[in-house]
Specification:
The complex is a heterodimer of chains A (268) and B (325).
Chain A (H helix, E strand, L loop, with lengths): L5 E11 L5 E12 L4 E5 L6 H8 L7 E10 L2 E2 L5 H7 L4 E4 L3 H4 L6 H13 L3 H14 L5 H5 L8 H15 L4 E5 L7 H18 L2 E6 L2 H7 L2 E6 L2 E7 H6 L4 H11 L6
Parallel strand pairs in A: 3-8, 3-9, 6-7, 7-8
Antiparallel strand pairs in A: 1-2, 1-4, 4-5, 9-10
Helix pairs in contact in A: 4-5, 4-7, 5-7, 7-8
Chain B lengths: L6 E14 L3 E14 L3 E5 L6 H8 L7 E6 L2 E2 L8 H4 L3 E4 L3 H4 L6 H11 L5 H14 L16 H13 L5 E5 L7 H18 L2 E6 L2 H7 L2 E6 L2 E7 H6 L4 H9 L49 E4 L2 E3 L2 H6 L4
Parallel strand pairs in B: 3-8, 3-9, 6-7, 7-8
Antiparallel strand pairs in B: 1-2, 1-4, 4-5, 9-10, 10-12, 11-12
Helix pairs in contact in B: 4-5, 6-7
Classes of the chains: A alpha/beta (268), B alpha/beta (325).
Chain lengths: 268, 325
Protein backbone atom coordinates (compact mmCIF):
# COMPACT_ATOMS: atom_id res chain seq x y z
CA UNK A 1 0.00 0.00 0.00
CA UNK A 2 1.23 3.47 -0.81
CA UNK A 3 1.13 6.29 1.71
CA UNK A 4 -2.44 7.63 1.82
CA UNK A 5 -3.03 11.24 0.82
CA UNK A 6 -5.44 11.69 3.69
CA UNK A 7 -6.11 9.64 6.75
CA UNK A 8 -9.04 10.10 9.12
CA UNK A 9 -7.87 8.52 12.34
CA UNK A 10 -10.20 7.76 15.25
CA UNK A 11 -12.46 10.78 14.66
CA UNK A 12 -15.19 11.01 17.28
CA UNK A 13 -17.53 13.79 18.27
CA UNK A 14 -20.93 14.92 19.38
CA UNK A 15 -23.50 17.63 18.80
CA UNK A 16 -24.08 20.01 21.69
CA UNK A 17 -27.78 20.11 22.47
CA UNK A 18 -29.60 23.23 23.58
CA UNK A 19 -29.66 21.93 27.15
CA UNK A 20 -25.85 21.76 27.07
CA UNK A 21 -25.68 17.96 26.92
CA UNK A 22 -23.91 16.09 24.14
CA UNK A 23 -25.39 13.73 21.56
CA UNK A 24 -22.64 11.49 20.18
CA UNK A 25 -22.68 11.40 16.37
CA UNK A 26 -19.28 10.12 15.22
CA UNK A 27 -17.53 7.15 16.83
CA UNK A 28 -13.91 6.32 16.12
CA UNK A 29 -14.21 7.01 12.37
CA UNK A 30 -11.08 5.87 10.57
CA UNK A 31 -10.34 5.47 6.87
CA UNK A 32 -7.69 6.42 4.35
CA UNK A 33 -7.82 7.96 0.89
CA UNK A 34 -5.22 6.50 -1.44
CA UNK A 35 -3.62 8.92 -3.92
CA UNK A 36 -5.16 8.86 -7.38
CA UNK A 37 -8.15 6.82 -6.24
CA UNK A 38 -11.82 7.67 -6.07
CA UNK A 39 -13.05 6.52 -2.68
CA UNK A 40 -16.75 6.38 -1.93
CA UNK A 41 -18.12 7.04 1.54
CA UNK A 42 -21.58 5.47 1.50
CA UNK A 43 -24.32 5.44 4.07
CA UNK A 44 -27.91 6.40 4.72
CA UNK A 45 -29.33 9.52 6.35
CA UNK A 46 -27.64 10.16 9.69
CA UNK A 47 -24.69 7.86 9.04
CA UNK A 48 -22.23 10.73 9.53
CA UNK A 49 -20.82 10.65 6.02
CA UNK A 50 -21.38 14.33 5.22
CA UNK A 51 -20.34 15.46 8.70
CA UNK A 52 -17.04 13.60 8.29
CA UNK A 53 -16.47 15.25 4.91
CA UNK A 54 -17.26 18.71 6.26
CA UNK A 55 -14.90 18.14 9.18
CA UNK A 56 -12.04 17.39 6.78
CA UNK A 57 -12.47 20.90 5.39
CA UNK A 58 -13.06 22.48 8.79
CA UNK A 59 -16.64 23.34 7.76
CA UNK A 60 -18.45 21.31 10.43
CA UNK A 61 -21.47 22.97 12.09
CA UNK A 62 -20.58 25.01 15.16
CA UNK A 63 -22.59 22.70 17.43
CA UNK A 64 -20.25 19.83 16.56
CA UNK A 65 -17.72 19.11 19.32
CA UNK A 66 -14.80 16.94 18.34
CA UNK A 67 -13.75 14.65 21.14
CA UNK A 68 -11.04 12.55 19.58
CA UNK A 69 -9.10 11.84 16.43
CA UNK A 70 -6.86 13.37 13.82
CA UNK A 71 -7.18 14.09 10.13
CA UNK A 72 -3.76 13.69 8.55
CA UNK A 73 -3.33 15.34 5.16
CA UNK A 74 0.14 15.17 3.59
CA UNK A 75 1.58 14.56 7.04
CA UNK A 76 -0.21 17.48 8.76
CA UNK A 77 -3.06 17.17 11.26
CA UNK A 78 -5.73 19.43 9.75
CA UNK A 79 -7.58 19.56 13.05
CA UNK A 80 -4.54 21.12 14.73
CA UNK A 81 -4.06 23.86 12.12
CA UNK A 82 -4.86 27.46 13.04
CA UNK A 83 -7.73 28.96 10.97
CA UNK A 84 -5.39 30.96 8.74
CA UNK A 85 -3.43 27.86 7.78
CA UNK A 86 -6.68 25.96 7.23
CA UNK A 87 -7.82 28.67 4.80
CA UNK A 88 -4.66 28.05 2.80
CA UNK A 89 -5.58 24.37 2.50
CA UNK A 90 -9.28 24.85 1.79
CA UNK A 91 -9.86 25.50 -1.91
CA UNK A 92 -6.15 25.31 -2.75
CA UNK A 93 -5.24 21.81 -1.64
CA UNK A 94 -8.69 20.37 -0.89
CA UNK A 95 -11.81 21.58 -2.66
CA UNK A 96 -15.41 20.54 -2.47
CA UNK A 97 -18.46 20.11 -4.70
CA UNK A 98 -21.82 20.29 -2.97
CA UNK A 99 -25.14 18.64 -3.77
CA UNK A 100 -27.17 21.63 -4.91
CA UNK A 101 -24.92 23.51 -7.29
CA UNK A 102 -27.40 26.29 -8.02
CA UNK A 103 -27.61 27.04 -4.30
CA UNK A 104 -23.82 26.86 -3.93
CA UNK A 105 -23.26 29.50 -6.63
CA UNK A 106 -23.81 33.18 -5.86
CA UNK A 107 -27.05 34.27 -7.58
CA UNK A 108 -25.98 37.90 -8.19
CA UNK A 109 -22.75 37.28 -10.11
CA UNK A 110 -22.38 35.62 -13.49
CA UNK A 111 -21.03 32.09 -13.41
CA UNK A 112 -17.92 33.13 -15.34
CA UNK A 113 -17.21 35.98 -12.91
CA UNK A 114 -17.36 33.59 -9.98
CA UNK A 115 -14.94 31.19 -11.60
CA UNK A 116 -12.65 34.06 -12.61
CA UNK A 117 -12.69 35.41 -9.04
CA UNK A 118 -11.57 32.11 -7.67
CA UNK A 119 -8.90 31.89 -10.35
CA UNK A 120 -7.40 35.27 -9.41
CA UNK A 121 -7.57 34.40 -5.71
CA UNK A 122 -5.70 31.17 -6.29
CA UNK A 123 -3.33 32.02 -9.08
CA UNK A 124 -3.23 35.84 -9.35
CA UNK A 125 -2.77 37.31 -12.82
CA UNK A 126 -4.89 39.74 -14.80
CA UNK A 127 -8.67 39.88 -14.89
CA UNK A 128 -8.53 39.09 -18.58
CA UNK A 129 -6.45 35.95 -18.01
CA UNK A 130 -8.75 34.85 -15.19
CA UNK A 131 -11.81 35.26 -17.41
CA UNK A 132 -10.17 33.25 -20.18
CA UNK A 133 -9.29 30.53 -17.70
CA UNK A 134 -12.89 30.47 -16.46
CA UNK A 135 -14.27 30.07 -19.99
CA UNK A 136 -11.69 27.39 -20.75
CA UNK A 137 -12.69 25.49 -17.58
CA UNK A 138 -16.36 25.63 -18.58
CA UNK A 139 -15.45 24.36 -22.02
CA UNK A 140 -13.44 21.53 -20.47
CA UNK A 141 -16.51 20.30 -18.53
CA UNK A 142 -18.36 20.30 -21.86
CA UNK A 143 -20.66 23.22 -21.32
CA UNK A 144 -21.78 24.19 -24.84
CA UNK A 145 -21.16 27.79 -25.92
CA UNK A 146 -18.88 28.38 -22.96
CA UNK A 147 -18.26 32.10 -23.69
CA UNK A 148 -21.97 32.88 -23.72
CA UNK A 149 -22.72 30.64 -20.74
CA UNK A 150 -19.96 32.30 -18.70
CA UNK A 151 -21.86 35.60 -18.90
CA UNK A 152 -25.07 34.00 -17.61
CA UNK A 153 -26.26 33.86 -14.00
CA UNK A 154 -26.83 30.68 -11.97
CA UNK A 155 -30.63 30.84 -12.40
CA UNK A 156 -30.14 30.55 -16.17
CA UNK A 157 -28.35 27.23 -15.67
CA UNK A 158 -30.10 23.87 -15.39
CA UNK A 159 -29.16 21.72 -12.38
CA UNK A 160 -26.84 19.58 -14.48
CA UNK A 161 -25.11 22.57 -16.11
CA UNK A 162 -24.67 24.28 -12.74
CA UNK A 163 -23.06 21.13 -11.35
CA UNK A 164 -20.67 21.07 -14.32
CA UNK A 165 -19.75 24.68 -13.53
CA UNK A 166 -19.15 23.77 -9.86
CA UNK A 167 -16.92 20.90 -10.92
CA UNK A 168 -15.05 23.27 -13.23
CA UNK A 169 -14.48 25.58 -10.27
CA UNK A 170 -13.52 22.91 -7.74
CA UNK A 171 -11.36 20.68 -9.92
CA UNK A 172 -10.02 22.92 -12.71
CA UNK A 173 -9.93 26.55 -11.58
CA UNK A 174 -8.78 25.35 -8.17
CA UNK A 175 -6.00 22.83 -8.64
CA UNK A 176 -6.46 20.71 -5.55
CA UNK A 177 -4.79 17.47 -4.58
CA UNK A 178 -8.04 16.22 -3.06
CA UNK A 179 -11.56 16.77 -4.33
CA UNK A 180 -14.48 16.04 -2.00
CA UNK A 181 -17.88 15.57 -3.67
CA UNK A 182 -20.93 15.52 -1.42
CA UNK A 183 -23.82 13.82 -3.27
CA UNK A 184 -22.87 15.61 -6.54
CA UNK A 185 -25.57 13.95 -8.63
CA UNK A 186 -28.43 13.61 -6.15
CA UNK A 187 -31.51 15.37 -7.46
CA UNK A 188 -30.34 15.26 -11.08
CA UNK A 189 -32.08 13.19 -13.74
CA UNK A 190 -30.55 9.81 -14.40
CA UNK A 191 -29.20 10.63 -17.89
CA UNK A 192 -27.61 13.84 -16.57
CA UNK A 193 -26.32 12.01 -13.49
CA UNK A 194 -24.55 9.50 -15.67
CA UNK A 195 -22.90 12.24 -17.75
CA UNK A 196 -21.71 14.09 -14.63
CA UNK A 197 -20.23 10.94 -13.07
CA UNK A 198 -18.38 10.16 -16.29
CA UNK A 199 -17.00 13.69 -16.28
CA UNK A 200 -15.84 13.36 -12.66
CA UNK A 201 -14.09 10.06 -13.32
CA UNK A 202 -12.45 11.44 -16.47
CA UNK A 203 -11.15 14.59 -14.75
CA UNK A 204 -9.77 12.61 -11.82
CA UNK A 205 -7.97 10.19 -14.15
CA UNK A 206 -6.58 12.99 -16.35
CA UNK A 207 -5.24 15.02 -13.47
CA UNK A 208 -4.34 12.26 -11.06
CA UNK A 209 -6.78 13.74 -8.57
CA UNK A 210 -7.68 11.94 -5.40
CA UNK A 211 -11.42 12.11 -4.81
CA UNK A 212 -13.78 11.31 -1.98
CA UNK A 213 -17.36 10.76 -3.15
CA UNK A 214 -20.03 11.01 -0.47
CA UNK A 215 -23.15 9.24 -1.68
CA UNK A 216 -26.09 7.02 -0.80
CA UNK A 217 -26.30 5.62 -4.34
CA UNK A 218 -24.52 2.25 -4.57
CA UNK A 219 -25.11 2.13 -8.32
CA UNK A 220 -22.87 5.16 -8.79
CA UNK A 221 -20.28 3.63 -6.46
CA UNK A 222 -20.10 0.30 -8.31
CA UNK A 223 -19.24 2.04 -11.56
CA UNK A 224 -17.04 4.93 -10.58
CA UNK A 225 -15.10 4.21 -7.42
CA UNK A 226 -12.08 2.08 -6.54
CA UNK A 227 -12.47 1.99 -2.77
CA UNK A 228 -15.53 2.05 -0.52
CA UNK A 229 -16.07 3.09 3.09
CA UNK A 230 -19.47 2.00 4.44
CA UNK A 231 -20.81 4.09 7.32
CA UNK A 232 -23.80 3.57 9.58
CA UNK A 233 -24.92 5.49 12.66
CA UNK A 234 -21.66 7.42 12.97
CA UNK A 235 -19.39 4.40 12.64
CA UNK A 236 -17.33 2.92 9.84
CA UNK A 237 -18.88 -0.49 9.26
CA UNK A 238 -16.59 -1.82 6.59
CA UNK A 239 -13.91 -0.67 4.15
CA UNK A 240 -12.53 -2.38 1.10
CA UNK A 241 -12.10 -2.30 -2.63
CA UNK A 242 -15.30 -1.81 -4.60
CA UNK A 243 -15.02 -5.35 -5.90
CA UNK A 244 -14.68 -6.79 -2.38
CA UNK A 245 -17.55 -4.74 -0.96
CA UNK A 246 -19.91 -5.68 -3.80
CA UNK A 247 -18.94 -9.31 -4.22
CA UNK A 248 -17.78 -10.34 -0.72
CA UNK A 249 -19.37 -8.01 1.83
CA UNK A 250 -18.28 -9.09 5.31
CA UNK A 251 -20.66 -7.16 7.54
CA UNK A 252 -24.40 -7.82 7.89
CA UNK A 253 -25.13 -4.09 7.52
CA UNK A 254 -23.28 -3.92 4.19
CA UNK A 255 -25.19 -6.97 2.98
CA UNK A 256 -28.51 -5.42 4.01
CA UNK A 257 -27.66 -2.13 2.30
CA UNK A 258 -26.71 -3.92 -0.92
CA UNK A 259 -29.87 -6.04 -0.84
CA UNK A 260 -32.03 -2.96 -0.27
CA UNK A 261 -30.30 -1.11 -3.14
CA UNK A 262 -30.92 -4.01 -5.46
CA UNK A 263 -34.48 -4.40 -4.15
CA UNK A 264 -33.94 -8.14 -4.01
CA UNK A 265 -35.13 -10.88 -1.63
CA UNK A 266 -34.81 -8.78 1.51
CA UNK A 267 -37.29 -6.24 0.19
CA UNK A 268 -39.82 -8.67 -1.28
CA UNK B 1 -66.16 -10.52 -9.76
CA UNK B 2 -62.76 -11.06 -8.14
CA UNK B 3 -60.19 -11.63 -10.83
CA UNK B 4 -62.22 -10.38 -13.78
CA UNK B 5 -60.36 -7.53 -15.50
CA UNK B 6 -62.03 -4.25 -14.72
CA UNK B 7 -60.71 -0.91 -15.88
CA UNK B 8 -60.46 1.53 -12.99
CA UNK B 9 -58.74 4.40 -14.79
CA UNK B 10 -58.79 5.42 -18.41
CA UNK B 11 -57.62 8.66 -20.01
CA UNK B 12 -58.07 9.67 -23.61
CA UNK B 13 -56.20 12.56 -25.23
CA UNK B 14 -55.44 14.08 -21.85
CA UNK B 15 -53.74 17.46 -22.30
CA UNK B 16 -52.64 20.38 -20.19
CA UNK B 17 -51.28 23.65 -21.50
CA UNK B 18 -50.35 26.80 -19.66
CA UNK B 19 -50.35 30.19 -21.32
CA UNK B 20 -47.04 32.02 -20.95
CA UNK B 21 -45.97 35.59 -21.68
CA UNK B 22 -45.99 36.67 -25.32
CA UNK B 23 -49.03 34.61 -26.28
CA UNK B 24 -47.00 31.42 -26.26
CA UNK B 25 -48.09 28.22 -24.62
CA UNK B 26 -46.30 25.71 -22.41
CA UNK B 27 -47.36 22.18 -23.31
CA UNK B 28 -47.06 20.16 -20.08
CA UNK B 29 -49.11 17.15 -21.17
CA UNK B 30 -49.88 16.50 -24.80
CA UNK B 31 -52.57 13.93 -25.61
CA UNK B 32 -52.03 11.03 -23.23
CA UNK B 33 -54.01 7.77 -23.30
CA UNK B 34 -53.74 5.49 -20.27
CA UNK B 35 -55.64 2.42 -19.08
CA UNK B 36 -55.29 0.77 -15.68
CA UNK B 37 -57.15 -2.31 -14.40
CA UNK B 38 -58.09 -3.18 -10.84
CA UNK B 39 -55.29 -4.86 -8.89
CA UNK B 40 -52.63 -3.68 -11.37
CA UNK B 41 -49.83 -1.14 -11.30
CA UNK B 42 -49.05 1.22 -14.13
CA UNK B 43 -45.76 3.08 -13.73
CA UNK B 44 -45.32 6.48 -15.34
CA UNK B 45 -41.62 7.14 -15.75
CA UNK B 46 -39.70 10.07 -17.15
CA UNK B 47 -37.33 12.79 -16.11
CA UNK B 48 -38.05 16.21 -14.63
CA UNK B 49 -40.38 18.20 -16.82
CA UNK B 50 -41.76 15.19 -18.67
CA UNK B 51 -45.27 15.89 -17.37
CA UNK B 52 -45.77 12.80 -15.23
CA UNK B 53 -46.82 14.67 -12.09
CA UNK B 54 -49.10 16.94 -14.09
CA UNK B 55 -50.92 13.84 -15.35
CA UNK B 56 -51.35 12.60 -11.78
CA UNK B 57 -52.83 15.92 -10.78
CA UNK B 58 -55.09 16.13 -13.83
CA UNK B 59 -56.48 12.66 -13.14
CA UNK B 60 -57.87 13.81 -9.79
CA UNK B 61 -58.58 17.38 -10.94
CA UNK B 62 -56.02 18.99 -8.64
CA UNK B 63 -55.03 20.57 -11.94
CA UNK B 64 -57.78 21.20 -14.50
CA UNK B 65 -56.96 19.44 -17.79
CA UNK B 66 -57.11 21.63 -20.91
CA UNK B 67 -58.54 18.83 -23.04
CA UNK B 68 -59.23 15.13 -23.07
CA UNK B 69 -61.16 12.66 -21.00
CA UNK B 70 -60.55 10.98 -17.65
CA UNK B 71 -62.72 8.04 -16.64
CA UNK B 72 -62.53 6.51 -13.16
CA UNK B 73 -64.75 3.51 -12.47
CA UNK B 74 -66.79 4.46 -15.53
CA UNK B 75 -67.40 7.99 -14.24
CA UNK B 76 -66.54 10.91 -16.53
CA UNK B 77 -64.21 12.81 -14.23
CA UNK B 78 -63.54 15.54 -16.81
CA UNK B 79 -67.24 16.42 -16.86
CA UNK B 80 -67.81 16.49 -13.09
CA UNK B 81 -68.79 19.76 -11.47
CA UNK B 82 -66.41 20.95 -8.79
CA UNK B 83 -69.12 20.42 -6.20
CA UNK B 84 -69.27 16.69 -6.86
CA UNK B 85 -65.52 16.12 -6.67
CA UNK B 86 -65.79 14.70 -3.12
CA UNK B 87 -67.49 11.68 -4.72
CA UNK B 88 -64.36 11.25 -6.84
CA UNK B 89 -62.13 11.33 -3.78
CA UNK B 90 -63.87 8.32 -2.30
CA UNK B 91 -62.64 6.34 -5.28
CA UNK B 92 -59.25 7.88 -6.06
CA UNK B 93 -56.70 9.10 -3.53
CA UNK B 94 -53.17 10.50 -3.74
CA UNK B 95 -49.98 9.69 -1.88
CA UNK B 96 -47.34 12.39 -2.22
CA UNK B 97 -43.56 12.31 -2.37
CA UNK B 98 -42.74 14.34 0.66
CA UNK B 99 -44.63 13.18 3.73
CA UNK B 100 -43.26 16.22 5.58
CA UNK B 101 -45.04 18.58 3.28
CA UNK B 102 -48.23 16.59 2.88
CA UNK B 103 -49.04 16.03 6.57
CA UNK B 104 -50.22 18.98 8.62
CA UNK B 105 -47.54 19.47 11.31
CA UNK B 106 -50.12 20.67 13.83
CA UNK B 107 -52.35 17.62 13.55
CA UNK B 108 -51.76 14.35 15.36
CA UNK B 109 -51.89 11.14 13.37
CA UNK B 110 -55.33 10.56 14.92
CA UNK B 111 -56.61 13.89 13.56
CA UNK B 112 -55.05 13.20 10.16
CA UNK B 113 -56.85 9.86 9.92
CA UNK B 114 -60.15 10.99 11.45
CA UNK B 115 -60.58 13.82 8.97
CA UNK B 116 -61.36 11.79 5.82
CA UNK B 117 -63.51 9.41 7.86
CA UNK B 118 -65.57 12.33 9.12
CA UNK B 119 -65.75 14.32 5.87
CA UNK B 120 -66.19 11.53 3.33
CA UNK B 121 -67.73 8.64 5.27
CA UNK B 122 -69.59 10.66 7.97
CA UNK B 123 -68.61 8.15 10.62
CA UNK B 124 -69.29 8.95 14.30
CA UNK B 125 -66.38 9.38 16.70
CA UNK B 126 -66.41 5.84 18.00
CA UNK B 127 -66.39 4.21 14.59
CA UNK B 128 -63.78 6.67 13.36
CA UNK B 129 -61.48 5.68 16.20
CA UNK B 130 -61.99 1.98 15.53
CA UNK B 131 -61.22 2.50 11.83
CA UNK B 132 -58.18 4.70 12.57
CA UNK B 133 -56.74 1.94 14.79
CA UNK B 134 -57.35 -0.58 12.05
CA UNK B 135 -55.66 1.70 9.48
CA UNK B 136 -52.45 2.25 11.45
CA UNK B 137 -52.15 -1.49 11.95
CA UNK B 138 -52.76 -2.12 8.27
CA UNK B 139 -49.74 0.04 7.42
CA UNK B 140 -47.54 -1.66 10.00
CA UNK B 141 -47.75 0.84 12.86
CA UNK B 142 -49.51 0.61 16.23
CA UNK B 143 -52.37 2.55 17.85
CA UNK B 144 -49.72 4.22 20.03
CA UNK B 145 -48.70 6.17 16.92
CA UNK B 146 -52.13 7.84 16.79
CA UNK B 147 -51.07 10.35 19.45
CA UNK B 148 -47.89 11.38 17.66
CA UNK B 149 -47.29 14.48 15.60
CA UNK B 150 -45.57 14.11 12.19
CA UNK B 151 -42.25 15.46 13.52
CA UNK B 152 -42.17 12.62 16.07
CA UNK B 153 -42.19 10.04 13.26
CA UNK B 154 -39.39 8.88 10.96
CA UNK B 155 -39.66 9.51 7.21
CA UNK B 156 -40.81 5.95 6.58
CA UNK B 157 -43.43 6.14 9.33
CA UNK B 158 -44.72 9.42 7.93
CA UNK B 159 -45.09 7.87 4.51
CA UNK B 160 -46.99 4.99 6.12
CA UNK B 161 -49.39 7.55 7.59
CA UNK B 162 -49.71 9.19 4.16
CA UNK B 163 -50.72 5.79 2.80
CA UNK B 164 -53.12 5.09 5.69
CA UNK B 165 -54.82 8.45 5.11
CA UNK B 166 -55.28 7.62 1.44
CA UNK B 167 -56.73 4.21 2.32
CA UNK B 168 -59.18 5.62 4.88
CA UNK B 169 -61.99 6.04 2.37
CA UNK B 170 -61.39 2.59 0.82
CA UNK B 171 -60.53 3.89 -2.64
CA UNK B 172 -60.09 1.73 -5.74
CA UNK B 173 -57.28 3.81 -7.19
CA UNK B 174 -54.15 5.21 -5.55
CA UNK B 175 -52.10 7.78 -7.37
CA UNK B 176 -48.61 7.52 -5.93
CA UNK B 177 -46.40 10.48 -6.85
CA UNK B 178 -42.78 9.46 -6.17
CA UNK B 179 -43.77 7.83 -2.85
CA UNK B 180 -40.27 6.51 -2.09
CA UNK B 181 -38.06 9.18 -3.61
CA UNK B 182 -37.28 10.97 -0.36
CA UNK B 183 -36.61 7.80 1.61
CA UNK B 184 -33.40 5.88 2.35
CA UNK B 185 -33.00 2.64 0.38
CA UNK B 186 -33.64 0.38 3.39
CA UNK B 187 -36.93 2.17 4.06
CA UNK B 188 -37.80 2.25 0.36
CA UNK B 189 -37.91 -1.57 0.28
CA UNK B 190 -40.25 -1.67 3.30
CA UNK B 191 -42.67 0.85 1.82
CA UNK B 192 -42.75 -0.97 -1.53
CA UNK B 193 -43.41 -4.28 0.26
CA UNK B 194 -46.26 -2.60 2.15
CA UNK B 195 -47.77 -1.22 -1.07
CA UNK B 196 -47.57 -4.63 -2.75
CA UNK B 197 -49.27 -6.32 0.22
CA UNK B 198 -52.05 -3.71 0.37
CA UNK B 199 -52.61 -4.08 -3.35
CA UNK B 200 -53.02 -7.86 -3.03
CA UNK B 201 -55.36 -7.52 -0.05
CA UNK B 202 -57.59 -4.81 -1.51
CA UNK B 203 -57.16 -5.25 -5.26
CA UNK B 204 -56.05 -1.63 -5.50
CA UNK B 205 -55.06 -0.07 -8.79
CA UNK B 206 -51.85 1.99 -8.59
CA UNK B 207 -50.84 4.79 -10.91
CA UNK B 208 -47.22 4.89 -9.80
CA UNK B 209 -45.17 7.93 -10.73
CA UNK B 210 -41.44 7.54 -10.35
CA UNK B 211 -38.09 8.21 -11.93
CA UNK B 212 -36.56 5.15 -10.23
CA UNK B 213 -36.35 2.38 -12.83
CA UNK B 214 -35.48 -0.24 -10.21
CA UNK B 215 -38.72 0.53 -8.42
CA UNK B 216 -40.63 0.15 -11.70
CA UNK B 217 -39.09 -3.25 -12.28
CA UNK B 218 -39.99 -4.27 -8.73
CA UNK B 219 -43.61 -3.14 -8.45
CA UNK B 220 -45.18 -2.37 -11.81
CA UNK B 221 -47.04 -4.56 -14.30
CA UNK B 222 -47.06 -1.99 -17.08
CA UNK B 223 -44.96 1.07 -17.78
CA UNK B 224 -45.47 4.24 -19.80
CA UNK B 225 -42.32 6.20 -20.60
CA UNK B 226 -42.89 9.94 -20.86
CA UNK B 227 -40.81 12.57 -22.60
CA UNK B 228 -41.71 16.23 -22.96
CA UNK B 229 -45.41 15.77 -22.22
CA UNK B 230 -46.09 12.68 -24.27
CA UNK B 231 -45.80 8.91 -24.00
CA UNK B 232 -43.02 7.63 -26.24
CA UNK B 233 -43.26 3.97 -25.28
CA UNK B 234 -45.55 1.76 -23.19
CA UNK B 235 -46.24 -1.87 -22.47
CA UNK B 236 -45.60 -4.69 -19.99
CA UNK B 237 -42.57 -3.85 -17.80
CA UNK B 238 -40.67 -7.06 -18.54
CA UNK B 239 -41.07 -6.58 -22.31
CA UNK B 240 -40.26 -2.84 -22.41
CA UNK B 241 -37.20 -3.22 -20.15
CA UNK B 242 -35.87 -6.26 -22.01
CA UNK B 243 -36.52 -4.92 -25.50
CA UNK B 244 -36.82 -1.13 -25.38
CA UNK B 245 -37.88 0.12 -28.81
CA UNK B 246 -37.75 3.91 -28.46
CA UNK B 247 -34.35 5.67 -28.40
CA UNK B 248 -35.40 7.68 -25.35
CA UNK B 249 -36.27 4.54 -23.39
CA UNK B 250 -32.95 3.04 -24.41
CA UNK B 251 -31.10 6.16 -23.30
CA UNK B 252 -32.93 6.16 -19.97
CA UNK B 253 -32.41 2.47 -19.26
CA UNK B 254 -28.77 2.54 -20.29
CA UNK B 255 -28.03 5.60 -18.11
CA UNK B 256 -29.20 4.03 -14.85
CA UNK B 257 -26.26 2.67 -12.87
CA UNK B 258 -26.71 -0.76 -11.31
CA UNK B 259 -25.39 -1.61 -7.85
CA UNK B 260 -23.40 -4.62 -9.09
CA UNK B 261 -19.68 -5.10 -9.55
CA UNK B 262 -18.35 -5.45 -13.07
CA UNK B 263 -21.46 -4.48 -15.01
CA UNK B 264 -20.66 -2.49 -18.12
CA UNK B 265 -23.40 -0.53 -19.82
CA UNK B 266 -23.47 0.42 -23.46
CA UNK B 267 -25.00 3.81 -23.25
CA UNK B 268 -27.20 5.29 -25.90
CA UNK B 269 -26.37 8.95 -25.48
CA UNK B 270 -28.68 11.83 -26.15
CA UNK B 271 -27.22 15.19 -27.06
CA UNK B 272 -27.82 18.12 -24.71
CA UNK B 273 -30.67 18.41 -22.24
CA UNK B 274 -34.47 18.27 -22.33
CA UNK B 275 -35.66 21.27 -24.40
CA UNK B 276 -38.20 23.86 -23.30
CA UNK B 277 -41.82 22.69 -23.40
CA UNK B 278 -42.85 26.15 -24.62
CA UNK B 279 -44.13 26.09 -28.21
CA UNK B 280 -42.58 22.70 -29.04
CA UNK B 281 -41.84 22.20 -32.74
CA UNK B 282 -43.81 19.64 -34.74
CA UNK B 283 -42.27 16.24 -35.32
CA UNK B 284 -40.71 13.80 -32.91
CA UNK B 285 -40.02 15.32 -29.49
CA UNK B 286 -36.56 13.82 -29.44
CA UNK B 287 -35.33 15.49 -32.64
CA UNK B 288 -32.13 17.38 -31.96
CA UNK B 289 -31.03 14.98 -29.23
CA UNK B 290 -31.51 11.61 -30.88
CA UNK B 291 -28.49 9.86 -32.43
CA UNK B 292 -30.78 7.80 -34.68
CA UNK B 293 -32.80 10.72 -36.09
CA UNK B 294 -33.64 10.71 -39.80
CA UNK B 295 -34.68 13.70 -41.95
CA UNK B 296 -38.33 12.58 -41.75
CA UNK B 297 -38.38 12.73 -37.95
CA UNK B 298 -39.01 16.47 -37.75
CA UNK B 299 -41.90 16.45 -40.24
CA UNK B 300 -44.71 15.04 -38.10
CA UNK B 301 -45.20 13.64 -34.64
CA UNK B 302 -44.76 9.86 -34.94
CA UNK B 303 -47.73 7.94 -33.54
CA UNK B 304 -47.50 5.07 -31.05
CA UNK B 305 -47.32 1.85 -33.04
CA UNK B 306 -47.56 -1.68 -31.70
CA UNK B 307 -44.17 -3.42 -31.92
CA UNK B 308 -45.25 -6.60 -30.10
CA UNK B 309 -48.50 -7.49 -28.31
CA UNK B 310 -49.32 -4.64 -25.91
CA UNK B 311 -45.97 -2.95 -26.51
CA UNK B 312 -46.23 0.45 -28.20
CA UNK B 313 -43.43 2.72 -29.41
CA UNK B 314 -43.46 6.08 -31.14
CA UNK B 315 -40.30 5.64 -33.18
CA UNK B 316 -40.59 4.68 -36.84
CA UNK B 317 -36.80 4.59 -37.22
CA UNK B 318 -36.15 1.72 -34.80
CA UNK B 319 -39.28 0.00 -36.06
CA UNK B 320 -38.08 -0.20 -39.66
CA UNK B 321 -34.37 -0.48 -38.94
CA UNK B 322 -35.07 -3.83 -37.34
CA UNK B 323 -32.24 -3.19 -34.91
CA UNK B 324 -34.17 -4.03 -31.80
CA UNK B 325 -32.00 -5.84 -29.27
Amino acid sequence: MTVPLLRVDGLGGAFRRRDGGLTPVLHDVSFALQPGCITAVVGETGSGKSLTALTILGLQPSAFVRRSGRILFAGQDLLALPPSAMRAVRGRRISMVFQDARAALNPVFSVGAQLADVHRLQHGGSARAAWDAAVEALRRVRIPEAERRARQYPHEFSGGMAQRAMIAMAALVCTPALLILDEPTTGLDVTIQSDIMELIVELCRDRGLTACLITHDLGVVAESCEEVVVMNAGRVVETGTTEAIFTRPQQPYTRRLLAASRLDAAAA
Amino acid sequence: MNGAPYTVLRTRGLAKQYPVAGGRRLVAVDGVDLALDAGRTLALVGESGSGKSTIARCVVRLVEPSAGEVWINGRAVHAMGRGSLPELYREAQMVFQDPNGSLNPRMTVRQVLHEPLRLHLKLDRERREARARQLVEQVGLTPAHLDRYPHELSGGQRQRIGIARALAVEPDLLILDEPTSSLDVSVRGDILALLLRLQREMRLAYLFITHDLQVVRHVADDVAVMYLGGIVESGPVAEVFARPAHPYTRALLSAAPVPEWGVTRTRLRLAGEIPSPIDPPPGCRLVGRCPLAQPGCSAARPPLVEVSPGHLSACPVTLTAGDRP
